[in-house]
Amino acid sequence: MPPDHRISRLLNALSGELSQEKLESLGREFNSLGQDRAEPLVFFVLQNVCQRLASALEGEAVSVERFEELTAGIADQISDILRDLQRGNAGVAKLEPLVSTLFRNLGLFRR
User: Fold this and answer.
1) Residue 59 CB contacts under 8 Å (≥ 6 apart), including other chains
2) pLDDT tens across 36-72, in order?
């Protein structure tokens, strides 16, 4: 299967540091992909993960330590799911661990 250029761009974006702006952009792209792909559940979950993280950062200054706590492991897990999609695997089995990481990180972030 030839590489999907939209997914390749997302993988490139995920290789750098996450930011609120990047999370919002990723969320918009996942929303778009979810509307025109065979894997809407995967993109719906990815969109919501990015939106939840961006919302947690909205309107407040966050220390580097707290930001790292909030986003720990998220980019790697999303990248892993996107690589699976490029290989033709649905990646659905990896969604639950991603959501668990999101909730754990949000819980840590709120202390």
Assistant:
1) none
2) 888 899 999 999 999 999 998 887 777 888 888 889 9
